[in-house]
Amino acid sequence: MSHRTHLLGFPRIGAKRELKALLESHWKHELDEAALLQGAKALRQKHWLLQKGAGVALSPVGDFSLYDHVLDAQLLVGAVPPRFGFDAAALTTAQYFELARGNRDQPALEMTKWFDTNYHYLVPEWQADTAFAAQPQRLLAQVREARALGMAAKPVLLGPLSLLWLGKAKGAAFDKLALLPGLIAAYRELLAALRAEGVEWTQLDEPILALDLAPAWRDAFAPAYAELSPHAPKLLLATYFGGVAEHAAWLKALPVAGLHLDLVRAPEQLDAFAPGYPADKVLSAGVIDGRNIWRADLSALLQRLAPLAEQLGDRLWLAPSCSLLHCPFDAAAETALDAELKNWLAFAVQKLNELNTLQRGLAQGRAAIASELAGSDFAREQRRASPRSHDPAVARRLAELPEHADRRASAYPIRAEKQQAWLKLPPLPTTTIGSFPQTPAIRASRAAFKKGELAAADYQAAMEQEIELAIRRQEALGLDVLVHGEAERNDMVEYFGEQLAGFAFTQGGWVQSYGSRCVKPPLIYGDVSRPAAMTVSWARYAQSLSAKPVKGMLTGPVTILQWSFVRDDLPRSEVCRQIALALNDEVRDLEAAGIRVIQIDEPAIREGLPLKRGQRDGYLAWAGEAFRLSSHGVDDATQIHTHMCYSEFGDILPAIAALDADVITIETSRSDMALLADFGRFHYPNAIGPGVYDIHSPRVPTAQEIRALLRKALQVIPAERLWINPDCGLKTRGWPEVEAALAAMVAVGRELRQTLAHTA
Ligand code: GLN
Ligand code: ZN
């Protein structure tokens, strides 16, 4: 008996981010199109051969993309937004990149997050009259490429329902499902072409099944797949990022040849599928975690899978839970991590081997994989017992937290009064979100310091000079609450992670974020604590330069958690609480150092929301508690700010209010203050600073624009609770535009104050 192993997708960026290099030199006109395409082909081949070498039975084809697989899916069905004026049947590579990145006349397709990952896809644009026509050529060419290498190729396509759902309806309102018949016809043609090519299996990804799907969408699946399957290769319908147990009955009856389930995110869903699993279907068990970087517990997996293998025989397939796109490439390439920690990791390459070991263990028995099992058990046991991952003091501290430790001593109105007693801020106080321009000089100092070319004292002096510059400029501008400017920070999560115990950083652990962009998330492997103050000296220095209050600047626990790879042996909520306590140490030290306005940024709270509504309240409860814990125990007179940079939180306002920050600054300018209406209707209780200009563009806002936005804000937020600030941090901007924009902002603030004084 043998269980096939397969992958839903593989990291296309390459072990050394080769694709990034290819793309960026092509975009800079240093590499011509032929060389780019040749390089991409070589990369695909390398990845296929790697998979073959690791014994993967079915390799994905079509998961590779020059920019984005959702864009590729749109092009496969010939759906090019008409605003570009391109011919879908003859799309050039240059046009492909114009869709992805925009051109002189047209902005790029909008980008948004791929479910709950940090990958961003290009949003399809649907119109009532969008027409589809299959364009299978590129995919067929890749199938032939893979076959030429002797691969068993399994084309991977985004499924029709998910593709349609992920797109945005443009123009006159219409029901997206009205486009389904045309789309299905195009898919039928695509699949028929694959079948004619001799393809045995094709994977159709339908990740929307893990969301709360409206009945109309759910009910569209069966008829759609009934139309597809007669002309198609064998279809494997892949679900991931969550459980689909509520759909088990109809999924089991769907006319497809196999189902893939994410048994890492939702192991319990097996109970809904295994009993009476249809005899004509393959079940692909996604048991290797495609979303995290830890070694699998092979022994436990073998045990879990044994009854399933017994039941299904070779109709049981083995796979990672989802595409390995979300994993870094190769842990073996890490040379700076300590050996113990490194032995706990499995990046994409290691996961291929785990899959192979599992397959052999199931087929031939434990004895056949004795040494691999011993290795896996050893790593597991070492991790479980290691003082590296367990710090009893952290556990004790959390256990000993008194009940309601996360609550401020007094309610907001009392705190606000005590804060104002010493702050003596004018009405409509002005501030910024934290960072000021990261000039080439700042970057050069930081790089030299990291390379050991700049002595610590010289680096400190350089940063202090930047702080002084920022303070002087803010004073000259007349801002009310100042910041030190964050010159010492490149990436904020990296800045804090590097100083916290329990975090590690890789050299090559890159994960694609979008196009050629990658991120390198820190690894949280152990109990988190703060060995020493992280920001106090910078803040104290800044405060020493001014009589105005300087706002301390921290990144919040939920954001740090969300942008890291998190240990899988503790609940995320627990890790978040640990980070919160570590940050709380910093908050208290800042307070003791006289920094009594402290901002704790939480730009990632919203993106941590679970995909299923039913799980959201639970998440928001622990995320909110962690935020409050990070500032617990501060004096009523200490003013806690938070900042979030997105404009859709109408749906989570109660949770935002429950953070109980004294002041929240949010992005609003691009939505023309639309968000504020939500805040007004909700009667948001504390102070709020709606961003009055968009920092994503170098454009300097006019006083008139700022005035108009603030007038709107004043209609829904009482003046005594309204702050004035930009949308977000200014680190990507240049000083001239920042000074001009802030000058306009401060001037409008002063003018409005006078008006208020007159009307009062
Ligand atoms: N304080 C940070 C800054 O100003 C906030 C960044 C963010 O919200 N993403 O850069
Ligand atoms: Zn922001």
Automatic annotation (TrEMBL):
Entry annotation: catalytic residues: 696 (proton donor)
Cofactor(s) it depends on: Zn(2+)
Reaction catalysed by this enzyme: 5-methyltetrahydropteroyltri-L-glutamate + L-homocysteine = tetrahydropteroyltri-L-glutamate + L-methionine
Entry's Gene Ontology BP terms: methionine biosynthetic process; methylation
Chain positions recorded as Zn(2+) binding sites: 643, 645, 667, 728
Residue sites binding L-homocysteine per the record: 433-435, 486, 601
GO terms assigned for molecular function: 5-methyltetrahydropteroyltriglutamate-homocysteine S-methyltransferase activity; zinc ion binding
UniProt similarity note: Belongs to the vitamin-B12 independent methionine synthase family.
Protein known as: 5-methyltetrahydropteroyltriglutamate--homocysteine methyltransferase
